[in-house]
From TrEMBL, chain A:
Lineage, broadest ranks: Bacteria, Bacillati, Bacillota, Bacilli, Bacillales
Cofactor or coenzyme needed: pyridoxal 5'-phosphate
Keywords, alphabetical: Amino-acid biosynthesis, Aromatic amino acid biosynthesis, Lyase, Pyridoxal phosphate, Tryptophan biosynthesis
Protein encoded by which gene: trpB
HAMAP family for the chain: Trp_synth_beta
Protein name: Tryptophan synthase beta chain
Function summary: The beta subunit is responsible for the synthesis of L-tryptophan from indole and L-serine.
GO cellular component: cytoplasm
One function term, GO molecular function aspect: tryptophan synthase activity
Annotated Pfam families: PALP (PF00291)
Annotated positions of the N6-(pyridoxal phosphate)lysine modification: K92
Family: Belongs to the TrpB family.
Provenance organism: Caldibacillus thermoamylovorans
Pathway(s) served: Amino-acid biosynthesis; L-tryptophan biosynthesis; L-tryptophan from chorismate: step 5/5
Swiss-Prot/TrEMBL catalytic activity: (1S,2R)-1-C-(indol-3-yl)glycerol 3-phosphate + L-serine = D-glyceraldehyde 3-phosphate + L-tryptophan + H2O
UniProtKB/TrEMBL annotation, chain B:
Lineage, broadest ranks: Bacteria, Bacillati, Bacillota, Bacilli, Bacillales
Keyword Lyase: yes
Similarity comment text for this entry: Belongs to the TrpA family.
GO terms, molecular function: tryptophan synthase activity
Reactions that this protein is recorded to catalyse: (1S,2R)-1-C-(indol-3-yl)glycerol 3-phosphate + L-serine = D-glyceraldehyde 3-phosphate + L-tryptophan + H2O
Catalytic-site annotation from UniProt: E51, D62
Pathway where it operates: Amino-acid biosynthesis; L-tryptophan biosynthesis; L-tryptophan from chorismate: step 5/5
Function according to Swiss-Prot or TrEMBL: The alpha subunit is responsible for the aldol cleavage of indoleglycerol phosphate to indole and glyceraldehyde 3-phosphate.
UniProt KW keywords: Amino-acid biosynthesis, Aromatic amino acid biosynthesis, Lyase, Tryptophan biosynthesis
Annotated source species: Caldibacillus thermoamylovorans
One CC-aspect GO term: cytosol
Pfam families associated with the record: Trp_syntA
Name of the protein in question: Tryptophan synthase alpha chain
């Protein structure tokens, strides 16, 4: 068994990662790195995180044996890691609780965040309400239109939502604007980045706070089946729920790990968000990773039915795990995700987020190649209430 | 050519008691066919060098004005390769140093060493890359150095003293002092401590110090110029070109370079 020690001191995951940011932000990143290094070795801090995750978020989340799904598919025993049961309905809050506590530790009173579908924005606005932090969330104008309810939620929680109309008015542009805002207010503001992307130490911090998913899963599956799973499946946009799920399993080489990207209308069209499957190496939002770009190094738009996967980049650690082949990355289309969305809803009475439905869709394919004495875990990263309206209109178009 | 041309040109101007003025323009804004004309016009106005922006889809260090100029330039089909080609086509007809400013991804995608070589061919003298801090500069610094292209470093108001000293020590051509908290764009005034900051930079920097970001008129330029070697004006120039106010650009530069009367 090889020991996995990524990232190194410079924030590199093999050939990927780093911190490609203006000098103005470097001191803040160095401060964050230092504060985080101390915090993660401070039992009082860890206890505080654990307290809020248990009492406020409602962890641990169940690892649910999906008996009906298992029967229907006739392959391995399938377990669902129920991140959809967290407070605010997705895994995002695992990270925002941790980063809000870091914000307090740094003595900062203000928070800025980016959001795509609004899940990370809501999770950030929630912890800011809880800890009395001022909160500004940047959100693309397209996304504001698509996710009105989440905008209202954030505002109810006391956050200020600022529309971003530059570029395509989606997550990528909201991230640009959050970075610009952070540069102008870096002395009193912390940037709570929502995915395992961005400059070091963000991918590390997000991974560590999300690792609670994989740690719990590992313990729970052994309790329930007496052994580690044969396969673990999670969806990948920026890659926060998947890295949180995968990380504790990386050294267990016999556990096969599958990351599922959004193929949108298909990976052979221009309309997809399959960064690892189709992208190439470049630098966006402070990190060297795989991304979608044209032949001149201009970032291209991602496309997916799922706003949470609609990002032209991916976390640097995923690029590394892709390169080393420790994780297998696959892509499923909008249509496949929609089918899986309905299938899980009907079979188990669980409405998955469209993001998570991508993981379910691939798991359904993978199950056909596995035997009944094997086990598979799917990370159900969020619940699908937010997507019901969109799914309805998509199904009506069919 | 390259780093030496910048150093020589700047030294001459400073020796004659002049301040340095660098305008920023976005390549391809207004069409690539006006690039030569604009560069030559600015050279005639007496600028020390020209900072030439190459548009990038995600310019996180830029404010609204330059973002919009970038969008216009990209719509005109501007690419790094295309700009290098045009610069090469009239390099013998210009003496003013040209400094490219772009983000690391277009350069990375073009090829780091290929870029350094292409700069030499195109007569590019220096490069500014705002999203490459000290920690990441090994990626490209070696190639630029090898080909004699000045790698101009940026220092910020948030940089602690040790970093300032290290950045200044490494900077080639000049030290770019980012003089606001945030992105490029017009500001009404600069904080009082910007002057202290510039004075500190002057004390530790072996190369000339120029203040940039937020400088938009002659008054500001002269004001900041008292504490450093000159200024870089971006958004205002971009706006004036876009509005076709060529005469005002001339006046802005003239006004900025006016010797301040000691009252």
């Amino acid at each position: 068994m090889t020991t996995y020690t990524m990232p190194d001191k410079t924030g590199r995951y093999g050939n990927f990662g780093g911190r490609f940011v203006p000098e103005l932000l470097m001191p803040a990143l160095l401060e964050l790195e230092e504060v985080y290094e101390t915090a993660k070795n401070d039992p009082a801090f860890l206890q505080q995180v654990e307290y809020y995750l248990k009492q406020y978020v409602g962890r641990e989340t169940p690892l649910y044996f999906a008996e009906q799904l298992t029967k229907k598919l006739g392959g391995p025993k399938i377990y669902l890691k129920r991140e959809d049961l967290n407070h605010t309905g997705a895994h995002k809050i695992n990270n925002t609780i941790g980063q809000a506590l870091l914000t307090l530790r740094m003595g900062k009173k203000k928070v800025v965040a980016e959001t795509g579908a609004g899940q990370h924005g809501v999770a950030t606005a929630t912890v800011c309400a809880l800890f009395g932090l001022e909160c500004i969330v940047f959100m693309g104008v397209e996304d504001i239109e698509r996710q009105k309810l989440n905008v209202f939620r954030m505002e109810m929680l006391g956050a200020e939502v600022r529309g971003v109309s530059s570029g395509s008015g989606t997550l990528k542009d909201a991230t640009n604007e959050a970075l610009r805002y952070w540069a102008a207010h870096v002395t009193d503001t912390h940037y709570i980045l929502g995915s395992a992307v961005g400059p070091h130490p963000f991918p590390l911090i997000v991974r560590d706070f999300q690792s609670v998913i994989g740690k719990e899963t590992k313990r729970q599956i052994v309790e329930q089946t007496g052994k580690l799973p044969d396969a673990v499946v999670a969806c990948v946009g920026g890659g926060s729920n998947s890295i949180g799920m995968f990380y504790p399993f990386i050294e267990d080489e016999f556990v096969k790990l599958y990351g599922v990207e959004a193929a949108g209308k298909g990976v052979d069209t221009d309309l997809h968000a399959a960064t690892l499957t189709k992208g190439d190496v470049g630098i966006l939002h402070g990190t060297l990773s795989k991304l979608l770009q044209d032949e001149h190094g201009q970032i291209t738009e991602a496309f997916s039915i799922s706003a949470g996967l609609d990002y032209p980049g991916v976390g640097p650690e995923h690029s590394h795990l892709h390169e080393t082949k420790r994780v297998t990355y696959e892509a499923v289309t909008d249509e496949e995700a929609l089918d899986a969305f309905q299938f899980l809803t009907k079979t188990e009475g669980i409405i998955p987020a469209l993001e998570s439905a991508h993981a379910v869709a691939y798991a359904m394919k993978l199950a056909r190649t596995m035997s009944p004495d094997e086990t598979m875990v799917i990370c159900l990263s969020g619940r699908g209430d937010k997507d019901v309206e969109q799914v309805k209109s998509r199904l009506e178009e069919r | 050519m390259g780093k030496e041309r910048i150093e020589q040109k700047f030294a001459e101007k400073l020796a004659s008691g002049e301040k340095l003025f660098i305008p920023y323009i976005m390549a391809g804004d207004g069409g690539l066919n006006v690039l030569e004309e604009r560069i030559c016009f600015l050279a005639e106005c007496g600028v020390a060098a020209i900072e030439l922006g190459i548009p990038f889809s995600d310019p996180t260090a830029d404010g609204p004005t330059i973002q919009k100029a970038g969008v216009r330039a990209l719509k005109n089909g501007t690419t790094l390769a295309g700009v290098l080609e045009i610069l090469e086509s009239f390099k013998t007809r210009r003496e003013v140093p040209v400094i490219l400013m772009t983000y690391i991804n277009p350069i990375f995608h073009y090829g780091l060493e290929r870029f350094a070589k292409a700069c030499v061919r195109a007569g590019v003298d220096g490069v500014i890359i705002p999203d490459v801090p000290l920690e990441e500069e090994d990626l490209i610094a070696g190639f630029l150095h090898q080909h004699g292209i000045a790698f101009i470093r940026l220092v910020a108001l948030t940089s602690p003293k040790e970093r300032v000293v290290e950045i200044a020590r490494r900077s080639e051509g000049f030290l770019y002092a980012v003089s606001v908290m945030g992105t490029t764009g017009v500001r009404q005034h600069h904080d009082e401590h910007v002057k202290e900051y510039l004075q500190t930079l002057k004390e530790v920097s072996p190369v000339p110090v120029l203040a940039g970001f937020g400088v938009s008129n002659g008054e500001q330029a002269r004001d900041l110029g008292e504490y450093c070697d000159g200024v870089i004006v971006g958004s205002k120039i971009v706006d004036l070109f876009n509005e076709g106010k060529i005469k005002e650009i001339q006046e802005l530069i003239k006004d900025s370079l006016m010797t301040r009367s000691k009252a």
